[in-house]
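User: Structure please.
Assistant: Input sequence and predicted structure:
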Amino acid sequence: MSMATLTIDELKSQAKRLRDAMAGSGTPVSHGAALELVAKSHGVRDWNTLSALAARSDNAEAAPAAVGAHVSGEYLGQRFTGCVLAFSRLSQSGYYTITLHFDEPVDVVTFDSFSAFRQRVNATIDGKGVSPRQTSNGRPHLVLDL
């Protein structure tokens, strides 16, 4: 079962089973420590990251990214890979602010006569990882591969 199909409740249940198994073998751990171990077992840095990436059992839209996640996509028409440095929901809207640090700087100028490289960018995206802002040719500024 992939992480995207696991719900928060299923992940918490994994942590409870882990905690019970470890206590049974004479190595008790707190519930919080068990949650952190479950997150590591799924290859993410901590419980907050895992819970942000997990499917929601209440049918709410899952966030398209999380702090620390390695993502890829297109920024101003250029392919990139990078790390999410900051991520937060904008109030009660369906939009998020995201700060990305690209693995390699991206040339955001399409002219041959000069270049302008960006390695850290801030953007607004929707729940599908697409920026509502567009370039003059109608393409979104940022599109995450989800």
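The chain has three helices and five strands.
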